[in-house]
Amino acid sequence: MPKSKGSFLRALLGISAAIGWTWSACGYADSIRSVSSEVCQTCHKEIYKQWKGSMHAQSTALEDPIHATFYKKVVGDPLAEGVKMKNGKYPVCLQCHAPNAAIAKQTKLDSDVTYSEGVNCVACHTLKTYKGITAPGGKLRLGMMAYETADSLQGPAGFNRGLQKLTAANDMFGGAPADDSDVPNPHLGEGVTMNGKQIPSLPMESNAGLMKSNAACMGCHDKRNNSHGVPLCATGNEYMVSKSDVTCQYCHMPMVDNEADHSMGGGHDGGMLKRSIVFTMDTKANGGKLLVTAKLKNQQPHALPTGAPFRNIVFKLMAYNSSGDLIWENAPEHPAKDDPQAYFAYLLADDAGKDAMPPTATQLGADTRLRPHEERELAYEIPADGVALIRGEVHYNLLWKVLADQFKHLPQDLRDSRVIAVAENVL
């Protein structure tokens, strides 16, 4: 017999598909979590491809180098079982970064494919009811702890076949078939064979109230405090301040060809970053000076940047002569020192008010990020002599500079700035 319940259930896939068992009929209410996204790929090829390239699929400490760096420092080895945090509790990080492992209370992330898949299909599509991240008494319940989950898949629409069945009862031809009735569908209650593969019964019910609302996202993307109660991520709070009716899915899962895009672009997605900001610049001569006005507008209903606290934006303003040589810039070293108004960041501090890392911070530092839908104007007066062109660039960074310099083991593209907006004024 297979060693684990998960492997035993996989051995039953062919049997369950053949005779139409549901997971609950097998006596395992939560066994649907043993279904890998590879199974879903059989029918949902394009959605799988989008998800596979997303940060949801790369959310674990096995796949995301930045998360892995902090996880190993704060928690321990993601390949070890029974790992606990310093307070002796199960690692809270896994509630969002490896939700299937969190539900099973496992920490060895390579012990089951659904653990290493991170936020996979089943992790999101079994969320039934959102309880909120604040438990009675005020304690935070994060990630999967914020939800009641189901043993059947939850979808934005489901499969509404009631009327068809009623019509079929009085129709000598058995009722008019649905458009997709000739396609085997495991979501209708029975296992099927697709492309030679046995797919178990994966019943799906409609849950538009959750799946088409922010509630599907906020368990992980609302707020996260460190052990000192300092909010490290607070996207939910930022959204509430904006009083926006735009849902997370509207931007992060737009409809394309009648399907929701499961790429779920965010801080790692160049297209999403470029769309997030409007940058314009104007330069006027005033005697021997050039007066430059730069405007940066946040298009989003949350702060820019948002999410992990070490993300930041740097505005670079540069003047060039007619030969293309750089003759002036606003921040030769770092804007936090050279030009504070050009540094958009969410800083954390220790008891003395000095900059601190997320795990050790005891209070918030300066928050200079763009507020939801805020437009901020930066004014500069620079020498006009020899200037032929003024160029402004908005740079997005996944890490504070001190971390980018310290974490040499990270891939270069994660440590480098990404230009998300450019404007030029030719004189």
| Cα-atom radius of gyration | 26 Å
Structural class: alpha+beta
In round numbers, the mean pLDDT is 90
Number of helices: 18
Count of strand segments: 19
Q: Termini distance?
A: 78 Å
Shape annotation: globular
* Proportion of helical residues: 25-40%
- Assembly classification: single chain
Note the beta-strand portion: 15-25%
Number of domains: 2
Describe the structure.
The chain is of the alpha+beta class and 427 residues long. The chain has 2 domains: 5-157 and 206-260, no CATH class; 270-426, Immunoglobulin-like. It is 25% helix and 23% strand. The longest helix is centred in the N-terminal third of the chain and has 10 residues, at 65-74. Residues 1-30 and 174-178 have low confidence and may be disordered.
Summarize the structure.
The protein has 427 residues and is of the alpha+beta class.
List keywords for this structure.
427 residues, alpha+beta, Immunoglobulin-like, 3-stranded antiparallel sheet, 18 helices, 19 strands, globular
Chain-wise SSE layout:
Elements: H1 5-11, H2 13-19, H3 37-41, H4 45-52, H5 65-74, H6 94-97, H7 99-104, H8 113-116, H9 121-125, E1 127-130, E2 147-149, E3 153-155, H10 162-169, E4 192-194, E5 197-199, E6 204-206, H11 208-211, H12 215-221, E7 224-225, E8 231-233, H13 235-242, H14 248-252, E9 255-256, E10 259-260, H15 270-275, E11 277-286, E12 289-298, E13 312-320, E14 326-329, H16 335-338, E15 343-349, E16 363-367, E17 375-383, E18 389-397, H17 401-406, H18 412-415, E19 418-426
Parallel strand pairs: 3-6
Antiparallel strand pairs: 1-2, 4-5, 7-8, 9-10, 11-12, 12-17, 13-14, 13-15, 13-18, 15-16, 18-19
